[in-house]
Amino acid sequence: MNKLLFSGVLITTIFSVQFSSFAQSLPRLRRNMNYAQARTLLIQRGWRPIPNSEQVNNPNRTGVIDSLIKKGYSEIVDCSGTGLGLCLFQFRNARGQTLFVSTANNEPKEQSTIYDWRIE
């Protein structure tokens, strides 16, 4: 009876670890991918947006940041005002890893696209 119970616990643990690993894996991101699509894939895989209350609650935020927050992207860290006008977003998984995603084409009438990403 103890062996049977132990086997059941072991099998449950193995399936939980495998599911957890899948749920936390990074989806196949690619440069120029639509950010909205990438964000949906990340959330489906268990990555959670890290809301940036400093930006969300800032009454003087810039037009680009304002438009991104209005799209529901509370995970916005900041946007550069020059060059490619890149914006940075952050997510966290259950393991405590942080994913930083930078985007280009962030103007209000454009579709933000993935520029780069990294995990820390």
Describe the structure.
- By secondary structure, the chain is an alpha+beta fold.
- It has four helices and five strands.
- Strands 1, 2, 3, 4 and 5 form a five-stranded antiparallel beta sheet that branches.
- β3 and β4 form a beta hairpin.
- The radius of gyration is 18 Å and the shape is globular.
Structural topology:
Layout (H helix, E strand, L loop, with lengths): L1 H23 L10 H10 L3 E2 L3 H4 L6 H8 L5 E4 L7 E6 L5 E7 L8 E7 L1
Antiparallel strand pairs: 1-3, 2-3, 3-4, 4-5
What is the number of beta strands?
5
Mean pLDDT: 84
Name the structural class.
alpha+beta
Distance between the termini: 45 Å
Order of helices and strands: HHEHHEEEE
- DSSP strand content: 15-25%
The Rg value, from CA coordinates, equals 18 Å
Low-confidence stretches: 1-23
Query: For the report, how would you describe the main beta sheet?
Result: 5 strands, antiparallel
Concise overview:
This protein is of the alpha+beta class.
Keyword list:
120 residues; alpha+beta; five-stranded antiparallel β-sheet; 4 helices; 22% strand; globular; disordered N terminus
